[in-house]
Write the structure tokens for this entry.
Amino acid sequence: MKALITGASSGIGRDIAKELSERGVELILVARRTDRLNELANELKVKADVITCDVSSQEECMRLYEAVKPMDIDILVNNAGFGLFGFFSESDLNRELEMVDVNIKAVHILTKLFLQDFKKKDSGYILNVASSAAFLPGPLLSVYYATKAYVLRLSEAIYEELKREKSRVSISVLCPGPVRTEFDKTANVKFSVKGLESRQVAKTAVKGMFSKKLIIIPGFLMKAARILERFLPEKWLLKAAYHMQKRKA
């Protein structure tokens, strides 16, 4: 098998690469930081190709797809993404639009293109990395939360379409809570609760993907929070989310 992973240079993407390599899956590692990718490729036990690509660019996404199309990819992991902290009225518009391009547009493009190929051969796995943020509105991280909600809902809709078509193609969406990665540094926040280890999240993600699980939520705390959210009024959730995010400043 062969997998393509975006955002593979650090965090969850890097550790998903390690987990897949332990299962003998050949890899195509994609990110902007070539040095990090080469370093990771040298650590892995399997053949790993490195492609430097900025998925915030639609043209780069298309170039990436065309470059790997002849390689007969079996697994797509859409992991690239970042966040930005602050009041919506004050946060940087250009940075937010870049976030939309990475967190939504790139996921949309690559999911569609690879899904079409997977359906033709009636096999393949797609793992879209969202967040527990996808289940809630997120004051002070509003755009990030909204982008992850898009990833979740798109993945769920595709899952049902594939089920109706009796397709053997699988799509899963990973929705972790805080994870110890570079996310907090990029978003300029500090998590108010202790994050999970990235490698453990990756292990859960890969296991869930191969089990064809739709929504993968690592950790008991996030699973319990997800259940609780269903019973609380929307405005209570808004207040709770605001205070939770404010503690990250």
About this structure: The chain has one domain: 2-246. The beta strands are 2-6, 26-31, 48-52, 75-78, 125-129, 170-174, 215-216.
